[in-house]
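re: that chain from earlier
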Amino acid sequence: MPLPNSPSLPATLDTDARLRSVARIARLMDSQFRLPGTRFRFGLDPLLGLLPVVGDLSTLAVSGALLLTMLRHGASGAVVVRMAFNILLDTLIGAIPIIGNVFDFAYKSNERNVALLRRHYAEGRHSGSGKGLVALLLLAFVAISALVGWGSVLVLRWAWQYFEAHPLLSN
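^ sequence. v structure.
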């Protein structure tokens, strides 16, 4: 019977420093700050989402890096797909002007993913790494990033043309 400190046993979410850092970064992105006088919490994700294109892509990159770290530490394919869906939903709806900003304050995809990983670890089903799945997810995130960037450019171009045709201040 292996000893508890044996290197052959997988690390748990709370004992592995890299996985603890995933939980800390998820908290920073989703619920680090509290609105004074309320129980409402928010993080950097919705604040960065206020910056067109750059904010959405930066939060997608952080979420993708967290997902890859979780995948390397034994998250199963089914859990990774659910995590990727959380990130995809956050990215696509978060990219919609105004509605996406409100959505970013309410939907905390990174903390949802950490909760999925904690449940996965609690069930004792963590094992191995899925390098093929990592490559597929990386390709999907690159494609999504390109689509978000392209859509944002289209919206900004439309807004520019609209305000050129309908100036706010007329001489």
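Residues 47 and 82 are 24 Å apart (CA to CA).
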